[in-house]
Amino acid sequence: MFKITHKSNKSRAGILRTRTGEYETPFFMPVATKAAAKYLDVNELGEINTSAIISNAFLLYLKPGLDVIKKHKGIHNFMNWKKCIFTDSGGFQVLSLNNFKDKFSDNGLKFKSPFDGSLHELTPKKVMEIEEAIGSDVAMCLDQMPLYNSSREQVEQATRRTHLFAEQCVKYHKDSKQLLFGIAQGGTFPDLRAESSKFISSLPFDGIALGGLAVGEPLEKMKEMIKISIENMPEEKPKYLMGVGSPKEIIEAVEQGVDIFDSVWPTRNARHGSLLTSEGELDIGKSIHKTSLLPVDKNCNCKVCKNYTRAYLHHLHKANEPLGNKLLTYHNLFFMQTLMQKLRKAIKDSKFEELKQEYGGF
After folding, report:
1. Which of 53, 80, 190, 246 has a CA that sits 20 to 30 A from residue 217's CA?
2. Catalytic residue at 297?
3. Which SS3 state, helix, strand or coil, does residue 88 take?
4. Domains of the chain
5. How confident is the model at residue 94 (pLDDT cuts 50, 70, 90)?
6. Burial, 285: exposed, middle or buried (Cβ in 10 Å; 0-12, 13-18, 19+)?
7. Residue tagged active-site, from 206, 259, 262, 297
């Protein structure tokens, strides 16, 4: 399922093999929560060399519903995306609904639909049935993510439940063509991180995710938890750092041996006018760009930088034109996929340090 092809110290390049093909790692997944990346269609995702996306099983189960996806014979046909698709269980999304933080139990979690208020229960068995029906390449286990600054007692409980859910997901997962990834938790407690990483690694998962990070903790604390986690995971399994998407964080995580990433960070920043460039972040909303004939980034080959000036993009952003969100999103995701290509090449060429210096502006 996964083969490491090159190493440069702890960083590595590899191949993840799924039901839809082989994909080079490390890679970054744009978030397509409801089977759609915000403002971009699947052809545009292909243009920027996206190899994988992540959708949310919980929300797809609610809308459009599994019956609709089954009629299409799976999510790939439903959204006309033929490459890799991960599906998250939805535990984090339920947690983010502030009225339902305390609905986890050892059986799973109960919640009200954000669409119509109907009552639902997600158990490990139910989550596996949903993700198998959706037909993603990679299914993520149900887990309980403790919030940052939770007490040790709360983190211990969430980690225990995550382990319980993981065992049951392994038991109920039946689709041999769908990879199953476990999720290690532990908050920012080093001993709990190590314990959870070891436990999840002991189960027959195809890959292992580092959950509960990039949720408000300081960067140095996140780096410490990544280090502890990976030290307690088998080298041969792919490592997935959930929810991390800034260039600086990705580079530092790849340096420690992480292979897979996802985040709304690049697209959310784009909608707020923050653009990624070879010299760092650029705020297209600033008045200095109102009359500028420069591209966003002279070193970028995306169609936005080739065809539009900063002045035009500034105008679209200030006027709240939907086209502005589309173009800014396209540029930021192009930047991210170009970064991942450069990372893979730097690892293969043993030039990781040079690449890290190149992106020092972040």
Report:
1. 53
2. no
3. strand
4. 2-263 (3.20.20.105), 273-362 (no CATH)
5. low
6. middle
7. 262
